[in-house]
From TrEMBL, chain B:
Keyword Chloroplast tagged: no
Stated name of the protein: Acetoin:2,6-dichlorophenolindophenol oxidoreductase subunit beta
Family matches, as PANTHER family: PYRUVATE DEHYDROGENASE E1 COMPONENT BETA SUBUNIT (PTHR43257), PYRUVATE DEHYDROGENASE E1 COMPONENT SUBUNIT BETA (PTHR43257:SF2)
InterPro entries in the cross-refs: THDP-binding, Transketo_C/PFOR_II, Transketolase-like_Pyr-bd, Transketolase_C
Alphabetized UniProt keyword annotations: Oxidoreductase, Thiamine pyrophosphate
Cofactors (names): thiamine diphosphate
Enzyme Commission code(s) on record: 1.1.1.-
Length: 307, 320
C-alpha cells in the first residue's frame, strides 16, 4: 500500500510538473483494495486492470522501475514505452494489461479464464473495474458468460461512488454492484476497501471457492478516491463536499493498518516509518531508473508494422 | 486454379468450415466461438467449439483474452453487421495490444465476417465494409473469392500470430470449386486469376467471378488481366503495379461503395508510383456500389450493387 501511495503521489506530481506527459489516474485512497486482493494473487494467476491501474500492477508484482520507465515513455518500461500509464502490461507477472476503455478489460479476463479452464488449470483471473463500468453492456455480458460457463474469474469492483464527472447514484439504477452480480447468479461480498485485512479475507474466500470448483465470484470493494480523477483533470467537479472528502481521508487504509499493527504489537512506530522510507526510496530509484533509460526506437517495435 | 490430384470439390462455405475443423484437429489451441457453431464441430471438439449468447462485444473480447493466453480463437460473427457491436474490442484491443504492450503479446484471433449483398437482406445485412477494418493498423483483412482461396486464406489466418478479419461474401457461399488438401494461401499475396495484356481488372471478393466472366465475354476484343488482391490489408501493391505497367490500364471492381474504399486505395497506390503512373494510357476507373444503403427491393439492389455489365461497360469505355 505504501509503495502504491508513494508511486502515485510521485506520478501525479511528475505529470503536473510536466516531467512526464499524458495523464495518470491516481489510485490514492483506494490502495486497500489492490493490496488486499493482490495478497491472494499467486504465480500463474492472471490479472486485468483498468485506467486506474498502477496499484493493481504493483499488486501483481510488476517492478516499479519498469512501471515508472513506462510512464516516462522509455525503452526500459514494461511495454518499452509503447503503452504508458493506461496500458501497462507485464505478461511475465500475469498482468495482461491496464486499459483505457472503461469496462473493456472485463471480457479479456473472461476469455483468459476460458483459456485456463480449457487447459484444466486451477488458476484465477482477477478482473478489476470501477463502479462506472457498470454502465457498459460488455460487463454484463461478460458476467453472464463467466457464470454460464463457470469460469474462474474474480470480478473486483472498486466502488468509489464516482465516475469521472458523475456520481454513481446518478447513473446506476440499483444501489450496489453486488446486486448486478446476484442477477447473474454470481456470489458476491461487499467489503470496506479501507480495511485491507477484511479485503484480503474476502478475496481469500473467493479465490478458494473459485480454485476448488470454478464458478466466478465478485467482490465489491467500497473505496474512497481522494485524488483527482486524472492528473489532467484536477479541477474537475467531484460531487463531494469538503466534509465528505475529509471523512474519506480519515478512512485512509494505510493509516488504519498502521494503527492496527502498532496496537496489536506487530510493528512499532519506527518500523512503520522505516517501511515508508523504503517505499519512497523505491519510487525515487524508479524515477532515476526511468530517466537513465533511453527512448525506444520505432524500428525495433511492432510500431512499424508491417501490417 | 489448377485442380491437383488431392483436390476435393466443395462449396465456398464448406471449404471454410472444413478448414476450421482441420485446424482444430491439428492444433489444440484453436477454438471456436459463435452464436452458430456447426453441430459436427461441437460434437467433435466439445468445449473448444462453443455456442455463445448473442453477446458480440463480450465474445469478441473473450477472443482477445483467449488469444493473449495462448489460444487461437476463431470467432464466427455470422454477419459483419453484428460485428459493429464489437468494434471496440477489435479496434481498441485486438488490433493494438501487440503494439501497446511493446510486443509482449500477440493476438492470434480470427474474426469471420460474412458480408455483402445479393440475398435481399436489405441495408443492415448487405455491407462490404472491409476498408473500415483495413484502415486500422494492427489488423489484417482478407476477402477470399473462391473455395480454394477461402480455405487457403482462412488456414493462413488461423496460423497467423496477429488478428485477421476474414470477409466472406455471402453471394459466394454456394460457389463450388476444387480445394487442394491442406491448401495454404499466404496473407498479403495477390493472385493473377487470368492473364491479359490490354487492361488490368483488379476485382475484390464477390466481384472476382463476375470479373472473370466479363473478361471471357470481351476476350475477342480486349485482353483482360484479372488480379485478385485476396488480402486487402496489407495490399500486394507489387503484383498490381506490375500488371498495370504491362497493360497500361486499370479498372477496379468492388462490391463496396467507392467512397474511402479498397478500390480508392488501389487507384492511389497505382497512380502515386511514378513509373506505374507513366505507363497509364487511360485514367483509372472504379466499378463500385452506389453510395447508398443497399435497398431491399430486388431491382433496386441490383441497381445499387455493381454487376458484370457494369464491369464490361467500364472496360469498353476505357479501351474505346
Ligand atoms: C468507454 C469509455 N467511455 C468513457 C471514458 C472516459 N472515462 C475514463 S475513466 C472514466 C470514469 C470511469 O469510472 P469508474 O469505472 O468508476 O472508475 P474510476 O475512475 O472511478 O476509478 C471515464 C468516463 C472511457 N475511458 N471509456
Amino acid at each position: 500500500m505504501l509503495l502504491m501511495r508513494r508511486f502515485d503521489e510521485a506520478a501525479l506530481s511528475l505529470v503536473q510538473s510536466g516531467r512526464i506527459r499524458g495523464t495518470v489516474h491516481p489510485y490514492i485512497g483506494q490502495e486497500g483494495c489492490a493490496a488486499g486482493v493482490g495478497a491472494v494473487f499467486e504465480p500463474g494467476d492472471l490479472m486485468v486492470s483498468n485506467h486506474r491501474g498502477h496499484g493493481h500492477c504493483i499488486a501483481a508484482g510488476v517492478e516499479v522501475d519498469r512501471m515508472m520507465a513506462e510512464l516516462f515513455g522509455r525503452a526500459g518500461g514494461s511495454c518499452h514505452g509503447m503503452g504508458g500509464s493506461m496500458h501497462i502490461a507485464d505478461f511475465e507477472r500475469g498482468m495482461l494489461g491496464a486499459n483505457g476503455i472503461v469496462g473493456a478489460g472485463v471480457p479479456h479476463a473472461v476469455g483468459a479464464a476460458l483459456s485456463l479452464a480449457l487447459d484444466g488449470h486451477d488458476r484465477v483471473v482477477i478482473a478489476f473495474f470501477g463502479d462506472g463500468a457498470t454502465g457498459q453492456g460488455v460487463v454484463f455480458e461478460s458476467m453472464n458468460l463467466a457464470a454460464l460457463w463457470s469460469l474462474p474469474v474474480l470480478f473486483v469492483c472498486e466502488t468509489n461512488g464516482i465516475a469521472s464527472a458523475s456520481a454513481l447514484t446518478e447513473v446506476l439504477a440499483v444501489e450496489t454492484v453486488a446486486e448486478i452480480a446476484a442477477a447473474h447468479g454470481i456470489a458476491s461480498e461487499r467489503v470496506e476497501g479501507a480495511d485491507v485485512v477484511e479485503v484480503r479475507a474476502s478475496a481469500q474466500r473467493a479465490a478458494d471457492a473459485i480454485r476448488s470448483g470454478g464458478a466466478p465470484r465478485l467482490i465489491e470493494c467500497v473505496v474512497d478516491r481522494w485524488g483527482p480523477h486524472a492528473s489532467r483533470l484536477a479541477a474537475m467537479p467531484d460531487h463531494r463536499s469538503a466534509e465528505d472528502l475529509a471523512a474519506a481521508r480519515r478512512r485512509d487504509p494505510i493509516a488504519r493498518l498502521r494503527e492496527a499493527l502498532i496496537a496489536d504489537g506487530t510493528l512499532a512506530s519506527p518500523a512503520c516509518d522505516e517501511l515508508d522510507r523504503e517505499a519512497r526510496e523505491a519510487v525515487e530509484g524508479a524515477i532515476a531508473f526511468a530517466e537513465m533509460s533511453p527512448y525506444p526506437e520505432l524500428a525495433k517495435t511492432s510500431g512499424r508494422g508491417p501490417w | 486454379m489448377v485442380s491437383e490430384p488431392t483436390a476435393k470439390t466443395m462449396s465456398y462455405a464448406a471449404a471454410l468450415e472444413t478448414v476450421v475443423a482441420e485446424e482444430m484437429r491439428q492444433d489444440p489451441s484453436v477454438c471456436m466461438l459463435g452464436t452458430m457453431v456447426p453441430p459436427a464441430l461441437a460434437a467433435e471438439f466439445g468445449p473448444r467449439a462453443r455456442v455463445t449468447p448473442i453477446s458480440e462485444p463480450a465474445v469478441t473480447g473473450l477472443a482477445v483474452g483467449l488469444a493473449q493466453t495462448g489460444k487461437r480463437p476463431v470467432v464466427y460473427w455470422r454477419n459483419i453487421t453484428f460485428a459493429f457491436n464489437a468494434f471496440d474490442q477489435v479496434i481498441n484491443h485486438a488490433a493494438k495490444l501487440r503494439s501497446m504492450s511493446g510486443d509482449q503479446v500477440r493476438v492470434p484471433a480470427v474474426f469471420r465476417a460474412p458480408c455483402g449483398g445479393g440475398h435481399g437482406l436489405a441495408a443492415q445485412h448487405s455491407q462490404s465494409p472491409y476498408s473500415i477494418y483495413a484502415h486500422i493498423a494492427g489488423l489484417k483483412v482478407v476477402v477470399p473469392s473462391s473455395p480454394a482461396d477461402a480455405a487457403g486464406l482462412l488456414r493462413a489466418a488461423i496460423r497467423h500470430d496477429d488478428p485477421v478479419v476474414c470477409f466472406e461474401p455471402v453471394r459466394l457461399a454456394d460457389a463450388a470449386g476444387p480445394v487442394p488438401q491442406g491448401h495454404l494461401v499466404p496473407l498479403g499475396e495477390a493472385e493473377v486469376k487470368r492473364e491479359g495484356s490490354d487492361v488490368t481488372l483488379v476485382a475484390v471478393g464477390s466481384m472476382v467471378p463476375l470479373a472473370l466472366e466479363a473478361a471471357e465475354e470481351l476476350s475477342g476484343d480486349v485482353s483482360i488481366e484479372v488480379v485478385d488482391p485476396r488480402t486487402v490489408s496489407p495490399l500486394d501493391v507489387t503484383t498490381i503495379r506490375a500488371s498495370v505497367r504491362r497493360t497500361g490500364r486499370i479498372v477496379v471492381a468492388d462490391e463496396a461503395p467507392a467512397m474511402c474504399s479498397v478500390a480508392a486505395e488501389v487507384v492511389a497506390l497505382v497512380t502515386e508510383d511514378s513509373e506505374t503512373f507513366s505507363a497509364l494510357r487511360a485514367a483509372p476507373a472504379r466499378v463500385c456500389a452506389l453510395h447508398l444503403p443497399v435497398p431491399f427491393s430486388e431491382p433496386l439492389e441490383e441497381e445499387v450493387l455493381p454487376g458484370r455489365d457494369e464491369v464490361v461497360g467500364a472496360i469498353r469505355a476505357l479501351v474505346r
